[in-house]
Write a structure and sequence with these properties.
mainly alpha, 59% helix, transmembrane helix, membrane, transmembrane
């Protein structure tokens, strides 16, 4: 999301496979001429052979990314920022549980999550800084930015948290508004085996809707918050991948009167299409893995339910649905 490598470079051919020059040559040395030095340089530049090299981003594949991280930060590089991540999420969970008591429903819980994540915006930014930078001797708590940076990062985090809750809540509300899941609230409703298949189909629909919302909402919001946080990376920290701190000249350092960060809209617009496609391909791989696991889990659950519960399948489905609703 932050890598901005040069896509191509001209490299002299002689630097690719260097060889030692001969100690002497049988060819007589050229006679001196009265030409100007500029003319000689022009001839040299014209005769020099160069090769056009197209660089491949380190994040082009999962395997290449892991190999690059291991080369720069060691074997445990994939767990960089784990301490900060755990502290951030545990603290957010505590705040959400406190705020959720004010609005004891699913929408209230989503609102509580948005408020909690926005309040911990500097924790989010600290985790991004740890993840994208070279290993540092600083402890994780020393990398949390000051509260003065909160107004700069809070809008991006609020946008990200809202998108995250929309991806989580909307599929549940849509799938629960029709079909067998809607009738589960009726005490006289007796679900059968056909309803089990219907619930499984609604689960697949909900998963598909979640994937669509993730691509349309969550990915742009995540890219935005990461790039806004990256634009405020301290100068003493070096990124672990090539990174243009100016975002193509769209940011102005604070020391010369600028905000020292990139805006929300520019954070997404400055994300090139090549990088977007690369990110989508990565997300597609991850989604296919999760989808395969989800389908296998659904099939196994349906088969086991038939075998274990038999004629009591309807009672089990209503009981499970009641437990699920009690936690919303």
């Amino acid at each position: 999301m932050v890598e901005s490598p040069e896509t191509e470079a001209y490299v002299p051919v002689g630097t690719i496979d260097p060889t030692d020059p001969p100690a002497y040559t049988a060819t007589p040395a050229p006679k001196p001429t009265h030409r100007q030095p500029d003319d000689l340089e022009d001839d040299t530049d014209g005769d020099a052979e160069v090769l056009l090299v197209r660089n491949k981003p380190f994040t082009a594949s999962i395997r290449q990314t892991i190999l690059h991280l291991r080369a720069r930060a060691g074997y445990w590089s994939r767990f960089r920022g784990l301490s900060m991540f755990l502290v951030w999420n545990v603290t957010a969970g505590i705040l959400i549980s406190i705020l959720a008591n004010i609005f004891p429903n699913r929408l209230g819980l989503a609102l509580a999550a948005i408020v909690a994540e926005t309040a911990l915006a500097t924790f989010n930014m600290a985790w991004v800084h740890i993840a994208i930078s070279e290993p540092s001797e600083k402890r994780w708590y020393k990398r949390i930015p000051s509260l003065r940076t909160w107004p700069k990062i809070a809008p991006a985090v609020a946008l990200w948290a809202t998108a995250h809750q929309a991806v989580s809540v909307l599929p549940m509300l849509v799938c629960g508004s029709f079909g067998s899941l809607k009738h589960m609230n009726d005490p006289d409703y007796e679900p059968g085996r056909k309803d089990l298949y219907a619930v499984g189909a609604q689960g697949v629909l909900g998963f598909s809707l979640m994937v669509a919302l993730y691509v349309l909402l969550q990915i742009p919001a995540t890219v935005t918050v990461v790039r806004v946080a990256a634009s405020m990376l301290p100068e003493e920290d070096e990124t672990i991948v090539p990174f243009d701190r100016t975002f193509g000249g769209k940011t102005t350092p604070a020391i010369i009167g600028g905000q020292g960060k990139i805006g929300l809209v520019e954070a997404w617009r400055s994300f090139p299409w090549e990088s977007r496609m690369r990110l989508l391909r990565l997300m597609a791989k991850v989604t296919l893995i999760f989808l395969a696991c989800w389908l296998i889990f659904t099939i196994v659950l349906v088969v086991e339910s038939h075998i274990l519960f038999g004629d009591k399948l309807g009672e089990m489905m209503k009981a499970v649905h009641g437990i699920a609703r009690s936690h919303q």
